[in-house]
Amino acid sequence: MVSGPQPPGLAHPLPGAVGLSHLSAYDWEAADGVCGGSPHLHLVCTEAYVVTGGRGAVQTLSPHGYREIPLRAGSIAWFTPGTVHRMVQGGDLRITVLMQNSGLPEAGDAVLTFPPEVLADPGRYADAAALPPGTGPETEAAARRRRDLAVDGYLGLREALVAGDAGPYREFQWAAARLVRHKVPTWRALWRAGALATAERTGAQLDALADGDPAYLDEATAHEAAPSRLGGFGMCGRRDEYDLPGTTAPHRGR
C-alpha cells in the first residue's frame, strides 16, 4: 500500500533516459535451423541485453565481421548503431533490454534485414514490417513471416561478410538510412525532450552545486510504472512493455 502524497505524473524518464522492456526469445526455427528473432539494426540507438535467465546467443554483423556472443544468466551484451543483431534461443532465454534514447525506438529507429528489393520500396517494407494489433494467432503468424523474411536477407549479408565482402552489409546500412531519413525531425524532437533534456538537467544541477545552492533537491520524488502490455510480439521475442516518460507509444513491433 502506497501512502503519502503522490507526484502529479511521471515527469522524469528512467536514469539516462533509457527505455526498458523484457524479452523471452522466440523458439521458432528459421531456415538455417536456428531458433530466434528477426535480425535488424538501429540507426542512432545503442541497445543492451541484460540476461536474466536461460541461455542463448546474439549474432552480430559489423565492420569487424560476424560474431556470436554467448548469453547466459548474469551476462550483458550491447551493440552500437549500425550493428545488425539477431537474438538466438538456446533454452528459456530471458532478457531485460535497455535501449538508449527512449522514444526513438518507438518512433521507428530499427530496420529489419529484409532482402534488397523490399528495402528499396518503402511501401513494401512497411507492409512487410507491420503486425496486426493484439497477441493472437494472426499476429503470431505475421511475426513469423516477418522474422523469416528478415532472416532471408540476413543470411545473405552474413555469408558475404564471412567471405570478406562487406559490400552487401554496407549497402544494407545505406538502404536503412534512406528508409528512415524522413523520420529524423521527429526523432530530433524526442531526443531534445528526453535524452538531451536529461543530460542538461544534470548540468544545471552541477552548476547549482558549484554555486552552493542545492535548492533543486526540494524536487526529490519517486516514480513507479507497471507493464503496459504483456507477451507482445517484438522483433526478437515475446515482449513485456512499459509506457515510460520520454516515449510516445509502446514498443509495438520492437
Structure characterization notes:
The chain is an alpha+beta fold and 254 residues long. The strands form two sheets. Strands 1, 3, 4, 5, 6, 8 and 9 form a seven-stranded antiparallel sheet that branches. A two-stranded antiparallel ribbon has the order 2-7. The protein has a single domain, classed as Jelly Rolls. The chain is built from five helices and nine strands; from the N terminus they run βββββββαααααββ.
Q: How do the helices and strands line up, and which of them pair or pack?
A:
Layout: E1 19-25, E2 40-41, E3 47-62, E4 65-72, E5 76-79, E6 84-99, E7 111-112, H1 116-119, H2 122-129, H3 137-162, H4 167-180, H5 184-210, E8 227-233, E9 237-242
Antiparallel strand pairs: 1-6, 1-9, 2-7, 3-4, 3-5, 3-6, 8-9
Provide keyphrases for this structure.
single chain; 254 residues; alpha+beta; Jelly Rolls; 7-stranded antiparallel beta sheet; two-stranded antiparallel ribbon; 5 helices
Number of domains: 1
Low-confidence stretches: 1-10, 248-254
Taking Cα atoms only, what radius of gyration do you get, to the nearest Å?
Answer: 20 Å
Average pLDDT, all residues: 90
Shape: globular
Helix content range:
25-40%
> Would you state the CATH class?
Mainly Beta
